[in-house]
Amino acid sequence: MFQDTLDAVPPRTSIHKCSLSKRSTVLESLPIPPNVTASRKLLVRLKRMTLLDPEKTISKQFFRNKLSMLKEQKRQLKTAHWLVIHPMSKVSDILDWLFFGTWLGTYMMLPLYVLVDIRQWPLQMVIIRMLHKPLELLILLTFFCRGYIDYTRNEIVLDIRKIVIRYLRTYFVLDVIILFLDLAISVGSPPHHFHIDDMVFTLLMQIALIGRANSHIKILCALLERLLSSRTIRVVIYHTYFTVLLVHGFTVMNVLVTKYATRAEINFPPESWLTAVFRGRKYKLDNIYFESQMLVACFFFGVSYLKSRIRYFPEQIFLTFVALVGRLYTLYLFADILLIFGTDAHPESRYEKFIGEVNEYMAAKNLPKDIRIRLLKYYECKLQKSYFREAEIMNSLSERLKMEMFLHFAMKLVQNNPILKILPASVLSILISKMKAETYLADDVIVSVGKPHENIYFISSGTVAVFNMNDHELDHLEDGYDFGLDQGKNYDYVAMETSEVYYVKYAILKETTTSYHELWAYYEMRWLMLHHKYQELGDRLRGGGDTMLHELRRGQLLENVKTRNVI
């Protein structure tokens, strides 16, 4: 019965697919065993959320292919402290949004801190504040273990020591002020008149919030870019939001100026706008805030304020400053919006014009949707959203500059290839200048069996699968690998993801490196060893493979200890 079951199972056959799925996941970096406990599964899933998320836009911009993303995930697992959170992870996104909400909540509560003594807050506001503070503390602590992107070196820093030092040098003091300063106000003097310590503490909190505003705006820009494809709508929403924040801050400061100047909580000078507006009526928080907001908005946007004249000198100075900032900001606002609308109406980018021509061509030829998508993806990877005449630019350079440029273009390839790495810079620059680069999409055939060629190929970035004449998948070649010495006689090479490949004619490669006999001996010996390995693996696969099911069928499962290849 058991033998009948085995015979009914079809033998394993190779499928023309790569183990790297087209939709990147982190399963390869952190697999979950099937018999693991529920608590362990939860911990592993939480750890996965701290790794790089391949689906994020910034991940696709920073890493050119899935293989490099997978390597980044493994780098974090092997080298980083277990507490470290990758800056392109899902957990980092969640923490960013928590920070966004807590900053905005504290900033919008500034009128309460300024206009109402903290010891006289309503009960519901005290409860909100008590719930708000632990969340702020949690976010502050996570900044000690969140990795960051060093744009000067174009690298992602996951060293916890560097992360802690950077945070202590930058935003730690500001975050501590925002977190604890209102507690210092609450243990201060009685609430019946304005004190110097309240003034200083409130001013410091405002400075800290303004110092953190840049981080808040960056998170907003990332959200708009993710949700809205239209750049025009994103810019309009961004400017509207930023203008509201700016007017809100000036509104609070407009009241504080009078309080700072008079050191009074209720009895303001008769020439103050507060006294002129209320004329002895009871001061209410909402009345003061909205009256101050209207006054600030009028001066900010250059509209006449009709309720009263500003006669108090400190208020005159402050509102003059508000008017000056408002004029400059309004000019910038109109210029930026006109630029955006003008750019959308008349695109100046050569890349946009070129893609427009490609779309017209595809529409005229009535190409199917799948080919259109592949064509646009090809140009996006090939041109990197920039279009220029590279040949004309390179021809205008001196020979030395050309060499330096070629070396820079292929730096990653040279570092990963053991043969190119040992060549002198002079020989290497000549060789690379004679190479050509090509971008292949997933499933593009680079070399086919039975189609002779004269090229040697070098993988700059990406993954290429090796197949024999029986369509058995034998190997994956990654960044820095070279292939093609068989000249198309034995193997197919197929791109498994978007890959950038350099190629040069075999005769040119040999002519350029003809004096390096040891290099060629090593190169040919390595190729023969690889060819022998592929032949052995192909023979095993043709005979059914070396899977446990195949050996169980042959009765050889427990005969010899054997290392099996993972295909």
From TrEMBL:
GO terms for biological process: regulation of membrane depolarization; sodium ion transmembrane transport. Keywords: Membrane, Transmembrane, Transmembrane helix. PANTHER family: CYCLIC NUCLEOTIDE-GATED CATION CHANNEL SUBUNIT A-LIKE PROTEIN, I[[H]] CHANNEL, ISOFORM E. One of its GO terms (cellular component) is HCN channel complex. It comes from the Eukaryota. The chain crosses the membrane at residues 94-114, 170-188, 200-224, 236-257, 288-306, 318-341. It comes from Acanthoscelides obtectus. GO terms for molecular function: voltage-gated potassium channel activity. Residues 419-484 form the Cyclic nucleotide-binding domain. SUPFAM superfamilies: cAMP-binding domain-like. This is Cyclic nucleotide-binding domain-containing protein.
